[in-house]
Specification:
9 helices, 5-stranded parallel sheet, alpha/beta
């Protein structure tokens, strides 16, 4: 079911009649919709990333700034926005390029209403999952930032499954010191096991426990 309370679908297309028709379709199933006649209009209306942006439905070819150029602009700003591109005949190469740059999907005009509704729903789900993952990553990083440099070193080795005596040998400190650091790490992180610590570190950085 669409989240009609907190999600807005932004439609960007220079064809007025088509834009209105698409907005009506999305509205008919409960989505809130904002429409823009050009990429420039969207950037003026949204100088910052709207917290309620569910996804962009974006024509790939438009005057002034194309949909692909808008996608590149948003990427340069660090915006992670799920995009459903609408393409005309012969734009498949551009659509593939857009997908490589992270677009959620593309539909060739004319498309079936249900195909668009399915694509938007999938894009919104993807965006929601990405926001949840980003929030979890930020929370994990904030937790690990509480650790001292030495505690970080101990935490990483503990998360890799090394016992205290191996950590002590690796860092050239006593086992008692490792035990103390380990306790501090667990207390600061609010966890109680090496497995939880490993999950926390991998959530903050998927490469955190890479060897070498």
């Amino acid at each position: 079911m669409p989240d009609t309370v907190s999600i807005v679908i932004h439609v960007v297309d220079d064809d007025t009649a088509f834009r209105r028709s698409l907005a009506f379709l999305l509205d008919s199933v409960g989505w809130r919709v904002a429409t823009h006649a050009s990429a420039d209009d969207f950037l003026v209306a949204c100088p910052e990333l709207p917290p309620d942006l569910g996804c962009l439905v974006l024509d790939i070819r438009m005057p002034s700034m194309s949909g692909l150029e808008l996608q590149q602009t948003l990427r340069s700003r660090g915006w992670s926005v799920p995009i459903v591109f609408m393409t005309g005949h012969g734009d498949i190469e551009l659509a593939v390029q857009a997908m490589k740059m992270g677009a959620s999907d593309f539909l060739e005009k004319p498309f079936k209403d249900q195909a668009m509704l399915d694509a938007v729903s999938a894009a919104v789900r993807r965006g929601s999952a990405e926001r949840t993952e980003a929030a979890q990553r930020a929370s994990a990083r904030a937790t690990l930032d509480k650790l001292s440099p030495r505690e970080h070193e101990v935490a990483r080795l503990v998360a890799l499954g090394h016992p205290n005596k191996v950590v002590a040998r690796e860092l050239e400190i006593s086992e008692k010191t490792v035990h103390i650091h380990r306790q501090h790490v667990m207390e600061k992180a609010g966890i109680s096991s090496a497995a939880e610590l490993a999950r926390l570190m991998l959530r903050a950085d998927p490469k955190a426990l890479d060897e070498g």
